[in-house]
Structures are given as C-alpha cells and as structure tokens.
Amino acid sequence: MATTMLSERENESWDLGDQLWARDPATGVFELLGYRQLGTASAAVHPLDWAGLVGARLSHDPADCVGRPLALFPGEFRYSPATGHPLAAAPHLGSDVWLPPFGGERGGAQRLQGLRLTSARLSLRGGLTPDADPDDELPLPCEGPCHFIVAAFSACESRLVALEVARGVLRQWLPHSRRWAELTPLGDARLGPSSLGEDAWSLAALEHEGTLQLFLPSDDGLAVLGINLLAGRCDVHILGSACVGAPVLWRGRLHVPMIDRDGVVFVQAVRPDDLSLERMPVSGLDPAAHRWLRPVADPQHIVWMGSRGQLLVRAEPAGPAEAVSFLPWPAGVSPRFDLGSPGLAAGHLWQPCFLRDAQGGRVVSVQLGTAGLVLLEPAGDDNGDDDDGSAARDRGTSLLASTTTSATLRARLEDPRRVSSGFGTKESYLTTFELAGVEATAPFFAARLSRPWTTQAFLYAGRLYLHHPELPTLPGWQCAV
Predict the structure, then answer these.
(1) pLDDT score at 384
(2) How is the beta sheet containing 296-297 ordered, strand by strand?
(3) pTM score, two decimals?
(4) Are the beta carbons of 333 and 279 closer than 8 angstroms?
(5) Could you say which residues of the chain have pLDDT below 50?
(6) d(Cα 367, Cα 351) in Å, to the nearest integer?
(7) By CB distance 3.0 to 4.6 Å, which of 18, 233, 257, 370 could disulfide with 245?
C-alpha cells in the first residue's frame, strides 16, 4: 500500500494494488479513483450498487459519513480510521457464473456442449406449492425474449446481465436500486441484433487475461464482447459476416456458420488469442439450407441441425485438421425439433425424428453425425399408439437437468387436449413447473403460457429464476443449501 501526500489542500492518493482511492485529509472521506483498469462508477449510480463490485467496506456512522448517508472505504480496511469501529463488508452476491441458454462452461471445457445440461446445482427449499408466491420477483428488462448472463467479469462479485437479442441491447441489474441500467457501448462499434430464434441462439465464452470474454452471434458478424460492470460499459469487436448459426468453442477455436454477401454459407474458425480467421468451405451444402439450430458438440464433431440436414465439423483421425460437410437427413426421416433437443445415449447424440418407411410412420431417435440411418427406439415415449410423439409433450418437457444434483426442471402441460396441435400457434396451456429429483418431484409454480417449452431458467444470487415473455415479472425461488 502506497500513500502519497500531494499538499495540505489536495487529497491523498492511496494505491492499494488493484485499486486506487483518494482521501480528503480535511474530512477523512475516501473516494474510489480506479479499480482493476475498469475506472470507476458513474456518479448517477448509487454507491451500494457498485460497492460489492470492488469489495469496499461500508459505514453509516455519522463520524465517518460527514453529512453523507454512507461512507465507503477500501476493502483492506477492517476498522474505521476515524472511530476505530469495525466496518461492514458490502453485500456480496457470490461469484457464480451462468452462461445462457443452459448454464454453460467457460472455455468449452465440458465434454458435451449444447445439451440441456448444467453442472450448477438445481435444488429448491422444501414445502413449495404452485399457488404460493415466489421468494423474489425482478422486473422484466424488456418486453420481448431475452437471455441472462451471470458473471463477475473483472469485478469482485457476479452480476446479472440481460441480453435483448432482437435489438442487441445489454442491461445490468442494479441490486440496491432494483432497476435495469443499459450498458453503453465503448467506441463506435455496437452489438447488432441477431435474427436467430430461441432454438438457435447461444453464445461461447472464454476466460482471457483474467476476464470473461463473450462471443455472440449477430446479423453483422461474430461479436467479441467485454463487459465493464463498474463503469456500465461494454466493448464490442465484430468479426466476419452475418451469423446463420451460433458459435461453439471446440478444439481450441471458435466455430460459427456464416453467410457472405454472395449467399454462400461457410464455417468461420476463429483463434481466440489473436482473433485470426480461417474460412472453412462446406462441401455438398444444400443451397436452401441457410438457418441452423444451436450447435451440439462432442470431442469428435460439431453438429448444427437444420430442416434439410446437418452441418458438420469433424475432427480428422490423424492430426489436428478439421473437415466441414453437409449431411442430408436419411431418406424418410424428418427431424422433429418440437419434440425436444438432442439427447445422449450409449455415448452418442440422438435427435427425435419422424421416420416413414415400409413399417409406416413413427417417432424414432436418429444418431447425429452419421451418414447412415442409425436408430434408437423408442424416442422418449413408450405409448405404441402415439405416432407423432405428442403424448410425450402432454406429460412434460425437460427444460434443464443438473449433472450435479440429478434433478430436472420440467414444464408439465396439464391441459387435456393434445399439444401437437398447438405448435407454431399462440394457443396457451396451463403449465406447472416442477423440479424432479431422484426421490421426489416438487411442483412450485403454475401459469398459463403459450409455447411454455421456450421458458428460460437461470441461477442468480442463490435463486432459480424463470423467464417467459408472457410472465409479468422474473419470479425467483431460493435454492436449498
């Protein structure tokens, strides 16, 4: 710690390593001048909205406040210099990370990516009922769909950031003021909108030089995004051309489908350390195949699924080379994306599809990334009379599963009519959300929603929140310890 006396009338400069404070020698008041190259907060932001980000200490003692409602001190201070009384730590909201849409992992470290799986704990306190009030309700950050990111970036604690994909707008939640504040772009670059739907959008993330770097698809190109929670700013850098699929970090590089000005679809590979690009042409691509669902990946390949086939990046058996290709669906096979995301079985990825062959028509699971027709039957439903798979929807839809607690968050549709008639419409369904564990299933919330299977879940500050554009708020429930 270094202290510099400038003059009797000027403030003292306190250099505490990763932070710089100034102290008024006449009043003893401390003021933050900078923290970890992030600068400081706007004067319009309440100090309690940013004190936790820098790990500051607090006092409400009039001897420390000197006529102000609150006094802040460097985090290394345990006692007030004026009174000797203990200083309170700023409220701490944890340092957990949640990357949409399903929790995610930094650096693509997980063996399987893109499945509705999270390593985060899914567990709620006991005694919940669907008609009870939630433990917390946050206001909606916008009217339409959005995704939620929880991370500390370079700060001391994690914060909640909402991304309005259709407009490319980022907002952070200010926990003391309980309001959303838009993150202002730094410089001329802006985060553009993305036309990818809720079943196609996802992001990739990487810890780079001590801070979290995000890679988001947009209609302008791949956006490399850094967030400064303290200053309320975001730094955006755009690479390549329009993204027609979501990025994935695989084998040390980012891979994302793009389309150029001539209408040619290709896969752009990006080195995250220097952002160098390699354009990877796609062999055998159907010219009409321009939109892809969010990718799934295992150590052998990446798969972006579309209505006409699969866009594949495959690791070559010998060496680090990668091959890109288009794989049409086998004859008689139509993917049923409305029946759920891909699943894992027998060490392979499988997608629910409708198969029409000599035996008639039925729902099956087709192995992804394989040229031939490899089936896994039955596909999540053991009702022999259910040819279209709608009965599986009637019983419930898995929104998210925890690999840590073996618990699954489900949306159960309790309406008696068959759900298959409602896909692609605005018809609403009475939906009960429940957490299914090994020993018991606990319903905790009910609402009438259209397309309830698109509900997003996220964990923030020890609570499980749900988001659906038709819900008036973001309801949250305290997680069990």
Answers:
(1) 41
(2) 296-297, 301-305, 309-315, 322-328
(3) 0.90
(4) no
(5) 4-8, 379-385, 389, 391-394, 416, 418-423
(6) 7
(7) 257
